[in-house]
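Tutorial, part two.
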Amino acid sequence: MQRCCSPNLKAHMVLVESMDFQLEHIGLYAKQDVKEGAINEQSDLNLRPVIEAGEELSYDYGYNLQPEEGHPCFCESANCRGRVR
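Running the prediction step on this input gives:
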């Protein structure tokens, strides 16, 4: 799994075996449909592109950086912010 400015995963806080919010876990879920072997298809129910079989999973940490803070980003996505923490 890699970090990317245009990720195909999103994070949700998940409670496991407890309703104590101090013990929550992070669950990563697909932002798009997932279809094994899909080739440039789109779901009939959801018009977002699918995550292709073998495609690398990516997640955005969501840090807000000040100018010149962090390190250069090399994700090459269309929405690249140029810097990562």
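The two ends are 17 Å apart (CA to CA). In part three we will examine how such features are distributed along the chain.
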